[in-house]
Write a structure and sequence with these properties.
This is 2-phytyl-1,4-beta-naphthoquinone methyltransferase, chloroplastic. The chain is an alpha/beta fold. Helix content is 44%, strand content 19%. It starts with 27 loop residues before the first helix and ends with a strand. Bound molecules: ligand LLAZDA3J and S-adenosylmethionine. The site of the ligand C/C(=C\Cc1cc(O)c2ccccc2c1O)CCC[C@H](C)CCC[C@H](C)CCCC(C)C has 22 residues, from helix 1, helix 2, helix 6 and helix 7.
C-alpha cells in the first residue's frame, strides 16, 4: 500500500514519520534525512560493497576535473569528503577546496576525518552547508568542480548542472561521477541483482535496507550517459563526454564550460 508522502520543508523528520513508497525518496528533505542517517556507516559500506573500487572511480573523477596546483575548486554534494580530500592533494596548500553538502551529519563526518588525518594540505579544505540547487558562490568562481554520486540524488538535475555551470570559470570543467543508467539490459540486470542480493542484505544488517533499496529506483530514474551529455550541452557547456566505468556499472560525465 502506498504510504502518505509528506515532503516537509527542510527540517528533520523522525524515522517514525518517515516512510518510503516502494523505495522512492521524492523530495529534498527526505533525501537529506536519508543521507544523514547513513552518514555513520557510509564510508565503510562503500569500501565493503565495492571492494574498494569506489576509490579508483573517485580518483578518475578528480583527474578528469582538471584540478591542478593552486586551483580554487568545489566538491558539490561532498558527503564525507572523499573527493574533497583527493582535490586537496591535487591543488596543494596554495590551492583551496570547498566541500558543499546539505547534510550536517555528512559534513560532520568529513570534518572529523579532516582532523584525524594529519596531511598538511587538508588545511585547504572548507566545509560549507548548502544546497547544490542554490550555490552560495559568485559566478565564474571555480577552476574545477567535482560531483561524486550527487547528481542522481538531487531533485532537480538541470538546476544542479546550471548552478555548477554558473560558478565555473570559462574553459574549466565539471566532473560528475555516478552510477551509470545503462542502455544494455544485461548491465542493468547485473547492477540490480547486486543491489537486491548483496547491497541491500548487507545494509539491512545496519537497519538501512530501505535507504540502500533507494539506490535501485534512483538509478532507474537517472539519465543515460547520452542524455547527460545532451543536458550539459543544452545548459551551455561547450563540450560534454560521458565515460562508462567498470563495464558500465558506473559512469563519469566530463563537461567543459
Ligand atoms: C561510492 C558508491 C556509492 C555511493 C552511494 C551513492 C548513493 O546514491 C547512495 C544512496 C543511498 C545509500 C547509499 C548510497 C551510496 O553508498 C559506489 C560503491 C558502493 C555501492 C553501495 C556498491 C554498489 C555495488 C555495485 C552495484 C556493483 C559494484 C561492482 C564492483 C566492481 C565490485
Ligand atoms: C551518495 S552521497 C555522495 C558523497 C560523496 N560525494 C561521495 O562521492 O562519496 C550524496 C550526497 O549528496 C548530498 N546531497 C543530496 N542532495 C543535495 C543537495 N541538493 N544539496 C547539497 N547536497 C546534497 C547528500 O547529503 C549526500 O551527502
Amino acid at each position: 500500500m502506498a504510504s502518505l508522502q509528506l515532503c516537509l520543508p527542510f527540517s528533520s523528520t523522525s524515522r517514525s514519520q518517515f516512510r518510503f513508497s516502494y523505495g522512492r525518496v521524492r523530495c529534498s528533505s527526505e533525501r537529506q534525512e536519508l543521507f544523514s542517517r547513513i552518514a555513520p556507516v557510509y564510508d565503510n559500506l562503500n569500501d565493503l560493497l565495492s571492494f574498494g573500487q569506489h576509490r579508483i572511480w573517485k580518483r578518475m573523477a578528480v583527474s578528469w576535473s582538471g584540478a591542478k596546483t593552486g586551483d580554487n575548486v568545489l566538491d558539490v554534494c561532498c558527503g564525507s569528503g572523499d573527493l574533497s580530500f583527493l582535490l586537496s592533494e591535487q591543488v596543494g596548500s596554495q590551492g583551496k577546496v570547498i566541500g558543499l553538502d546539505f547534510s550536517k551529519n555528512q559534513l560532520s563526518m568529513a570534518s572529523s576525518r579532516q582532523d584525524l588525518v594529519s596531511k598538511a594540505c587538508y588545511k585547504n579544505i572548507e566545509w560549507v552547508e548548502g544546497d547544490a540547487l542554490d550555490l552560495p558562490f559568485s559566478d565564474c568562481f571555480f577552476d574545477a568542480i567535482t560531483m561524486g554520486y550527487g547528481l542522481r540524488n538531487v531533485v532537480d538535475k538541470r538546476k544542479a548542472l546550471e548552478e555548477s555551470f554558473r560558478v565555473l570559470k570559462p574553459g574549466s570543467r565539471i566532473s560528475v561521477l555516478d552510477f551509470n543508467k545503462s542502455t544494455q539490459p544485461f548491465t542493468t540486470a547485473i547492477q540490480e541483482w547486486m543491489i537486491d542480493n548483496v547491497v541491500v542484505p548487507v545494509a539491512s544488517g545496519y537497519g538501512l535496507a530501505e535507504e540502500y533499496q533507494y539506490l535501485k529506483s534512483s538509478i532507474r530514474e537517472f539519465l543515460t550517459g547520452k542524455d547527460l551529455e545532451k543536458l550539459a550541452l543544452e545548459i551551455g557547456f561547450s563540450r560534454a563526454k560521458h565515460y562508462e566505468l567498470s563495464g558500465g556499472l558506473m559512469g563519469n560525465l566530463v563537461a567543459t564550460r
